[in-house]
Design a protein that fits this description.
By secondary structure, this protein is α/β, with parallel strands linked by helices. It folds into 2 domains: 9-70 and 184-243 and 346-396, 3-Layer(bba) Sandwich (FAD/NAD(P)-binding domain); 123-178 and 248-343, D-Amino Acid Oxidase, Chain A, domain 2. It contains 12 helices and 17 strands. The strands form 2 sheets. Strands 3, 4, 5, 6, 11, 12, 13, 14 and 15 form a 9-stranded mixed sheet that branches. It binds flavin-adenine dinucleotide. Flavin-adenine dinucleotide (FAD) binds at residues 35-41, 58-61, 65-68, 70-74, 206-207, 235-237, 239, 254, 256, 295, 339-341, 366, 368-372, 374.
Amino acid sequence: MNLHSGSPFWLIRNGLLAGEGTPLPHDERCEVAIIGAGVTGALVADALVAAGRDVVVLDRRGAGLGSTAASTALLQYELDVDLCDLGGMIGADRAARAFQLCHGAIERLEALSRELGGCGFTRRSSLYLASSRRDRTRLMRETEVRQGVGLPAAWWPEDRVLTRYGFASHGAILSTSAAELDPLQLTRGLLARSAAGGARVYSRTAMTEYEESGAGVVVGTSRGHEVRADRLVIAMGYEVPASLRRGLVVLNSSYALASEVVDSFGMWDDRCLVWESARPYCYLRTTPDNRVLIGGEDVPFRDPTRRDRLLPEKRKRLERHRTRLLPGLDLETAFAWAGTFGETPDGLPYVGSATDGSRTLFALGYGGNGVVFSAIAAELLVDACCGGSNPDAELFALDRNEGV
Ligand SMILES: Cc1cc2nc3c(=O)[nH]c(=O)nc-3n(C[C@H](O)[C@H](O)[C@H](O)COP(=O)(O)OP(=O)(O)OC[C@H]3O[C@@H](n4cnc5c(N)ncnc54)[C@H](O)[C@@H]3O)c2cc1C
């Protein structure tokens, strides 16, 4: 996200503070150095501190000022790749496990948000609209497959969707276990708790290089000081250099609008999350202060300048989608912004080390479920840093799509 363009909603809500932490004032030594104080780095830091590890977090900006501040933070167990399609790519059992892990991650995010005072976490249903007649058949099958592996999903025919919500569709899957939150509050809350538990969180300090030795990892920084650590966690979001992405993650620009406050959401009174089967898709949610967020209009990312240049055109297109989806609401746009996120062929993130025995661990490639994946990454990386094995690690291994 480029802070000089757009107006990420959560920054406006939470105050335009530069984020917690001072620049790195001296050399540091720790067990785990985390690069990136977005929601991923914050979740990893909090889990490592809870496991008794000595942690240092560095961010080139401030806490949560990367993609995290741009996120619309819909929390869904359903991935951008449908369960049926994922089953075709990686096998039905592994696909079901990935969906179930996402389902469990929402419960963990709920517990963490509660511990931190709420963080805007609210349980919602998720309505996945079939955008075409062909998608109707596909999503009916998807509903059955989800039900077959114990996931909460029900098929709603188009007349039921229209009567209940007023959304025009070819039917929809209603899932009852989704949620929304304020990603910046969660990130800052987790980092504040980590700091209270002994972590040192430094802002405006970029990692400029790192080198592994037998004994650990040495991180060079823009402040001229070094951080020496037993292990390094790279949670730099989409800013991971292309050489480290190794062609694993495709970057997309994404756009979002927040409306002015409304008095009523009309027939959409349960304020469920809404998305659709068209690709790229649009999605909707509401906010605690009664706005409508709409996002989508994704295009391949080249650089922040070109991404942000498209904002006026994307704003108009999203406003048209908003009128299409919510014809009964008279909405005015209050903020529009752009952000960047990564996408992988199977919709799953890459979490773990690039080579066996490496002391450097990655958390890469978050798509539409980025925040949920961050929670999964935290579990996997804590096990990796604490010397434990995790039976789900291979689902997210960096080498799983080699040759795809
Ligand atoms: C418009 C938009 C809407 C989205 N909507 C959703 C949604 O509805 N639901 C969902 O689950 N996900 C959504 N996502 C995805 C989600 O926001 C991301 O997956 C998530 O925020 C990634 O968090 P992160 O901590 O990995 O990355 P980031 O938040 O980008 O954090 C990475 C941090 O690393 C720092 N950094 C980078 N390079 C360096 C360096 N060299 N040295 C030190 N620090 C460095 C950055 O400053 C940044 O703070 C959306 C994303 C966008 C852009």
